[in-house]
Amino acid sequence: MPSRRTPPSLATLILMTAVSLLSLNMFLPSLARMAEDFGTDYAIVNISVAGYLAVSAVLQLIMGPLSDRYGRRPVLLTGLAVFAAASIGCLLATDIWLFLGFRLLQAAVVSASVLSRAIISDMYDKQTAASLMGYVAMIMAIAPMMGPMAGGFLEQLIHWRASFAVYAVCGVLLLIACWVDVGETNLHPSETFAAQFRAYPELLRSRRFWGYSLCTAFSVGTFFIFLGGAPLAASAAFGMSPAWLGVGMGCTTAGFFLGNLVSGRFAARMQLSQMMAIGRIVTLAGLGAGAALMAAGLFHPVTFFASVVSVGIGNGLSLPSGNAGAMAVRPRLAGSASGLSGAMQVGGGAALTVLAGVLVTEENGIAILMTLLMLCALAGLVVALYVLRLDRTEPLPDLS
Hints:
Elements: H1 10-25, H2 31-38, H3 42-45, H4 47-70, H5 72-92, H6 96-105, H7 110-123, H8 126-140, H9 142-157, H10 162-181, H11 193-198, H12 200-204, H13 207-238, H14 242-251, H15 253-266, H16 272-295, H17 301-328, H18 334-359, H19 365-393
Helix pairs in contact: 1-7, 1-8, 1-9, 1-10, 4-5, 4-6, 4-7, 4-18, 5-6, 5-7, 5-10, 7-8, 7-18, 8-15, 8-17, 9-14, 13-17, 13-18, 13-19, 15-17, 16-17, 16-19, 17-18
């Protein structure tokens, strides 16, 4: 067995992030059926997405500083144990509120994605870290790409609860893998837990940290808007079955794979802010083209889902550089920076998921959904251009 000081393998880092993402989207094609089975409204069941994201945001604010104080390994293993137990609870729950309680506990798996970024930051400089994050995200993108497809087919072949059985198995297996493979990479832990929270203002005073974090938040926001509105909008507009809806939602993640492939190859040789801006331009251009084609009469599910592939491509270009940049602002606070930046991403995503759930209806679904996506992409572009300007006018690290 490797030493507890041995850094984890690339395969383990990929699995950590993949399971964290899989826990969000595999059951999404089944939301309507779940509402029927529990005898409640779609909006209540949608708390399993929005509430999960909100709890994830809060946990990231805690787990980042905890890992800077006590180490990455113990925080990671605790989070995975809670996730595995909560997945079993979701599988067995017969009441909607009991189900939602366990579903919120599943958010503990966010420790895997937060700490995978912090571990990479512990091990590499910011340019290399951005490149490696791109490759990790490229490979692990297979999980969220296949997740909705698998969830849709599992519902048709077995039951929607089968998705939560898969979560439980994945949680147990990942816990074992991390126990064996993940050594401690935080070799200089802080003296006290309170000191980590006192360090947050140091991050908040950095304009670059805000720029990197807000750009990644808006980038992820486009994805969460899609997750919150697409199941209702696409099924109402195009009459898609859960299985085909899962295929459509999963195929959009192929763009994320492509974007991360490009990031892995070029992030080490380009400014981080340049990669972020390019990603936002790609997203906005793709969504604009899709909206124009549908307005011109090509109103078809292929047109819709093909345009949303640009969200995945743009995120693949922007997120590795944005995440690496946020943690590089204060390297000794990598865990706290990862947690705070991640909380902004997930908290914003929760709010946007709720917004999409409220505004998107069966009558106006596609039009409202595309409008929200383009507005969020535009906001991300504005922030990315600000960071790019900051890098050009103040090339030295921001130590203000």
